Amino acid sequence: MSTSSPRKVSDFFHPLHSRNDLDPLLERIGDAQYVLLGEASHGTHEYYTWRAQISKRLIEEKGFSIIAVEGDWPDCFKINKWIKNGETKDIQEVLHEFNRWPTWMWANWEIAAFADWLKDYNQHHSRDNRVGFYGLDVYSLWESMEIIVSYLEKEDPETAELARQAMMCFEPFKENDSYGSVFSRSKPGCQEEVIRLLKEVRQRSHNYDSELEADLNAEINSLVMANAEKYYKAMSEFGSSSWNVRDRHMMETLNRIMDYHGDQAKVIIWEHNTHIGDARATNMAHAGLVNLGQLVRQEKGYKNTVLVGFGSYEGSVIAGNAWGAPMQEMYLPPARESSFEEKMHQFDGTNKLLIFDEHPEITNAFSEDLGHRAVGVVYDPERDSGNYVPSDMVERYDAFLYLDQTQALHPLKFRPQGNFTPDTFPFGI
C-alpha cells in the first residue's frame, strides 16, 4: 500500500505570471462589492501594473464601475472627466496637473496606460455604464475651495456666498507652507462655516447638472473643506488623531460616491497597505488607530469586502529622502530576516498569490505576527529595518500578491526610451 507524502504549505500557493493566474483571486472575490488593492510602497512599478490587471478583469467580468484611489479629489476628477467624456487631449496633459508632492504617485506612465485603457473601455459603453475614477484623500483644501467657489458662482450664487465666507477663514494663510500653522491660527468658527456650506450644497446638489457629475463634484469638494479643517488642526497638535480623521474622511467620501452610483455599484480601491490592510491585525490598533480596510469591513461586512495586500522581497523604488525632496530611484534591500517577505522568498523566490482562507495549511502557516514591510513616500534604505509593521497576515488581508523582485515606478517626467509600454512590461500581463 503506497502512501503519499504530506503536502507542504507552498503546495497551496498559486503561481503568478500572467493575468490568467488571477483566476483564484477572482473566485475568492465572488460577488463582493468592495475590493481593496494595496501596495507596500507608492513607488513600485509592479504594484501598479498588477492592480491594473486585477481591475481590468473585475470591470470586464464582474461589472465593477468605480476606481477610488489614495489621491486628491480635484486632480482625480480630471482623470474621471477625461476617461468618461472621451476628450481629445493626451492623458499626459491631465496627469501633469498633479502638482502636489509626491507627484509620481499618479503622474506616471503606469497610470497613463491604465487611464488610456479606461477611456477606450468607456467609449464602448453607454454613459450610465462607464467606469469612474475618483480620489478619496483630504489634502486638497485650497484646490477644493477654489473649485467650489468658482462653480457655485455660476450655478448657485446664494450658496456661493457661503463658500466665500468659508474660504475667508483660511485665505490669510493660503501662501503659508505649514498647514499646521494655518489651522492652529485660523479664525474661530471655520469648521462651522464649512459644515454649513456642506449641508447647503447637499440640499441643492440635485440642481447642479450642467457638467458631468457636477452635483457629486460640488458635494465632495465641500466635504474636503469640512474634513481638511479637522485633519490639519489634528496635525498641528502633533497627535495621532490626524490619521483617524484622514481615514474616516476617505470612508465618508467612499460612502458618498457609492450612494451616488446606487445600491448595485461595485468599487475597486487603490491605496497603501497601511490603509487597506485591517488595522486591527497590526500594532496600529494598540495606538488607537483605524484605517479604511477596517472601516469597510465593519460597515459593509466581511463577505462583501475583500482586502488584497501586496509586497516584495527586493528591488528598487521611487521615493524622497525627506518630505518635499526630489524623487529618487532608490535601492530596496532584501527583506529583513524573519519578516513575512523574507519568509516568502525562502520558499522558492517566485511570484505567488496567496488566498489566506483557502486552505487550513496557509491559515496555520501565517497565523503568527510577522514583520511586514511598509515603504512610504519618504524612505531611507539604510534604515529599512525600521519599516516593518507587526501583522497577523491572515487577519489583515484576505489575499496577497507576493512579487519577489520589483522595480521602480516610471514617473511621467521621465520619458521611457525605446519601445517601452509600462502597462505590460516586464511580464506581458
TrEMBL record:
<protein>
    <submittedName>
        <fullName>Erythromycin esterase family protein</fullName>
    </submittedName>
</protein>
<dbReference type="Pfam" id="PF05139">
    <property type="entry name" value="Erythro_esteras"/>
</dbReference>
<dbReference type="InterPro" id="IPR007815">
    <property type="entry name" value="Emycin_Estase"/>
</dbReference>
<dbReference type="InterPro" id="IPR052036">
    <property type="entry name" value="Hydrolase/PRTase-associated"/>
</dbReference>
<dbReference type="InterPro" id="IPR014622">
    <property type="entry name" value="UCP036794_erythomycin"/>
</dbReference>
